[in-house]
Write a structure and sequence with these properties.
The protein is mainly α and 227 residues long. The chain has nine helices and no strands. Pfam families: TetR_C_43, TetR_N.
Amino acid sequence: MPVQPSRNQSSSAAGTPVRGQRADARHNHAQLLQAAREAYALNGTDVPSSTIARRAGVGAATLYRHFPTRGSLIAAAFSEQLTECVAALDEALRDDDPWRGLCSALAKVCRMQAEDRGFSAAFLGESPDDPDLHRERARAEAGLAQLVQRAKNTGRLRKDFDPSDVTLLLLANSGVVRQSPEASLAASRRLLAYFLQSCRATDGAPSLPPPAPLRLDDLYGLPHRTD
């Protein structure tokens, strides 16, 4: 069964300007989100709130009016990427062909990662203490595990494939997004093609080493840079 849509989307955590806000308040809200996404993509999610405010061109008091806690800002900045990722997994689980569904989901997630540098920080960055964001990541892992098992049951995905191998793919794919958009997408597609070829079940294929002890929610630690 596909993972059921979350009733508490991360965007509820101050992610959308309140209806009736003044134009300048809406502008500040958007500027703060943009500044947060850019800063987190470069330095991880431990960037000080004061740095986010400076990048957005507003004062700290304005930031806290829109996002009372650091967790609410992180959740709002990353909610769209996580929601799209979970939606891609849900769509893949509805596909009658489990192998095609797996390939489609991986292609969409890798494309999102190559197109948006913030995706790496959202999916592989440090885990903020926000229950909605944790819930979305847990849903992503549950959907991925279902998708992998369905593909294995068809006999087309090698039996020793582990869901943590997708994390390895995302780590590798994150290394191509520092190039131009065109080069990033081309490199991402080629990397994914190699990955999927190696994942197909074939007679006589040598066994893989044991899977790495990796989970999506264990990888929230990108290299940090100082401003």
